[in-house]
Amino acid sequence: MFARLVYQSFLRQRRRKLLAGLAIMLGVAVATAMIAVAADIGDKISRELRTYGANIVVYPQEDTLDVEIGGINLKPSSDGAFLKESDLPAIKGTFWRNNIVGFAPFLPLRVDVRQGTAVRPVDLIGTYFSRRLRFGKDEFVTGVRNTHPWWRVAGNWPDDASRDVLLGEDLAQRLGTQPGDKVQIAGREIRVVGILSSGGAEDGAVVAPLRFAQEILGRPDAVRRVLVSALTKPEDALARRDPDTMDRETRDRWYCSPYANSIAYQLQEAIPNARAEQIRQVAQNEGVVLSRIKGLMLFLTLAALGASALAVSAAMATAIFERRREVGLMKALGAGNASVAALFFAEAGLLAIVGGAAGFAAGVGMAQQVSAWIFNSRVTVQPVLFPVVLVVAILVTFTGSVAAIRRAMRFDPAVVLRGDA
Amino acid sequence: MNSRRKMFLLMLSRPLVVRRGRTLTALLAVVVAASVATATLNLYTDVQAKLHKEFRSYGANIVIAAREGKTLPDDALARTEAAIAGRGIAAPFGYVVAHTTSGSPVVVAGTDVERARRLNGWWSVTAWPRASGAALLGARAVQVLAPDGKPFDLSFRARKLRVAPAGTLRTGAGEDSRVYLSLADFQRWTGLKPSTIEVAITGSADEIATMIPRLAASLPEAQARPVRQIVEAEARVLDKARAAFWATSAIILLTAALCMLATLTASVLDRRKDFAVMKALGASNLAVNALFAAEAAAIGLVGAVLGFGIGVGIAAWIGRANFHAAVVPRFGILPAVLGGSVLLGLISATLPMSLLRKVQPAAILRGE
Fold this sequence. Notes:
The complex is a heterodimer of chains A (421) and B (368). Chain A is α+β, with helices and mostly antiparallel strands and 421 residues long. Chain A is built from twelve helices and 16 strands.
């Protein structure tokens, strides 16, 4: 009998049920989309923040002091210690390898550029552009094109296996060089394939494949420092602690969190005789900006959840209030308050489940649209969100119905049926 | 005429008082929608300025350097500050390569300590030098120059300077290998003036682009360049964040509007019996429409004013909680909120009216 009442109610009042169901669906869709986007925004902005470039630097442990002013290196090329290039692929063997977006080794030298009879000393920087490397079974591509996304090249990027170079735009202007021209560098005739604009010290330098820079220096396998760009978690109290003073459990937790400090620590373990440190300008501020954007998104999500909960309860309240005559009839026929309430709650629950499921699907679609449009990537929606959203939808629907059901039951059946209420 | 207007006002106000419950429900829907809309719009307009300020913790986005073979004039810093007119921080830096007693080279920088501290918030410093002769040592420099924390000698062009380490600086970049002195000490010792001024301007990439010619005009001896790494990344991240806020704000506004529309429509539909009675007593369509529309508009107006107040409060609270700075109320959005909610009120009153008009009053009164 009860099931038939519910069934008939849905059958006879299709339009009204559809409207209430639509309201629930809209509410749940908005809530789902907001939660999905907000939960993902940290990751997405984190990835965008990588346009600030590397946040960890690796240099030899025994190195002498850098002698560098305004990005121009004044230290003799052969002075100090070097890292081994052959050790670098191990960076992709660390615990947080999937968080490492890219790395680029650097080997700065002083070389002579001859133009006619004039000889002038310039900086030459050896690096990877987009070098294909292999660690174990993993193959990956890394270089300045990952770690320095603000570098722009007119012409072509050199091949890492070639002896072609990039010329900084200031240097190219002074030499009057165009892409495709040849210049005399360190006694060799070199082809310039592109002009680099970086907005930094590289604009006055020559940028060459690492292999070629090592050849000029006469030290194969040598690297002065490595810049690593990693996705990190904003620093908190735990991140700032010294791992050597922690107890075992805390240390494990520290080690397995993608803090800039713990990734640097792991790089130090992976590369022999190396010191790794976070580049504070990038790493520290990332956390500040990220937490502000995440915080704002959280508040907006709360506002959206509030608005959609209100929409659902308002829809339920009106839907039930319109049926007070039915309540009157049922009560006149001898139904108790409990059975009337049970009927309404069953209907509301059914609506919430159907509307909630449809709303969840629509919400996921909406989140994907927003994410594809803004970040050109997909959001990952946690499957656990589905039951959570459904339960919340049922709860909100019930709370929205309670007041209306109470009111509907308070009316005297005779008054309602006469149509005086 | 006067009595008709009185009647209209009476018919408008009585139901609002007699059916307080229903009026309050409708009003609540409007207040919530308006306050959510106000808070969202207020935050959206304010958030860019707030985020630009947060991004300034990345430090300088313009570097002014003397042209080759020239030096910066004595009043370079004053002229820079005049050009940026309080919209940022500028700090002067001078550099030389000095030698330790053992003959190894080390870069020594002179700067205005207080300005450098404000400009480079990410510098991790144990203690800033205050006294004359005190220096800030980079984390790598300190291991070479003063591992025991004792004063040491530096020489530049055969002039010696005794330096007392005051604190350690850690940045993970070139600064770690340097010694930082106060500008007064630096100038007395080397006889050189600052060669670069680092400037952090608060504002968008466009504002920075317009600042560069202004700086160049006030300092013809120097070259001002944007720090592309900082400027471009900021623009990119901000663009994405702004787009995300825009999308979510649009979703929130839409939900709030739909919710309000649904509640008001339902409350008008609920009164179809009043409508029928009025029609049966001979009221014209126009008069009934006007009455219902005026009622909805009144609820919309009152709700919007209340909602605006609450929304401004919510925005201010979020600003305080998230950015530690108040969000200034934007009264420019008040007309939008008022107009939007009155318009929604009118729509929600006229939409059901066109439905009801097709029905005979008698049918409604019979209860069909």
